């Protein structure tokens, strides 16, 4: 990160960003090349001795370009952002943009078993539809894949709008 003054380390603000964002963009690669996949997500964020830890959960089909790319190369780039706004300036090139974001790198893996699949789907529902009734039928669990993204490295950043 070039501008360390914009880095966010406060876990409560990182949680705010995770809650406000409804889409995460995943950069991945397959035989056709690099591509970006925007997906809804759930998450688990916690403190540990070595620092902050973040796991993202997404779901989808067990086959197709995204799933095949994850199987081929589990390394992904991750980006999410919120609080967008134009920052006006005194001249053309002094305009900017306000935001909060999380970016980083992670490794994708398929949920290890049905228990982890249910856990990941529950995290997705809790994030995307708080308070909704959560129930998973065996048929749905069988045809739905849950991918877990262990974030090896991530940073949170904020560019605030100018106060008037």
Secondary-structure-based class equals alpha+beta
Beta content comes to over 45%
Q: Report the span from N to C terminus.
A: 28 Å
Main sheet: strands, sense, barrel: 8 strands, antiparallel
Sequence stretches where pLDDT stays below 50 over 5 or more residues: none
Count helical runs.
4
- Report the C-alpha radius of gyration, rounded: 18 Å
Overview of this structure, please?
With 164 residues, the chain is α+β, with helices and mostly antiparallel strands. Helices cover 24% and strands 46% of the residues. The chain contains 4 helices and 8 strands. It has helices spanning 11-20, 65-72, 114-128, 138-143, and strands at 7-8, 24-30, 33-39, 42-48, 51-60, 75-87, 96-110, 145-159. Strands 1, 2, 3, 4, 5, 6, 7 and 8 form an 8-stranded antiparallel beta sheet that branches. Strand 4 and strand 5 (51-60) form a beta hairpin. It is globular. The two termini are 28 Å apart.
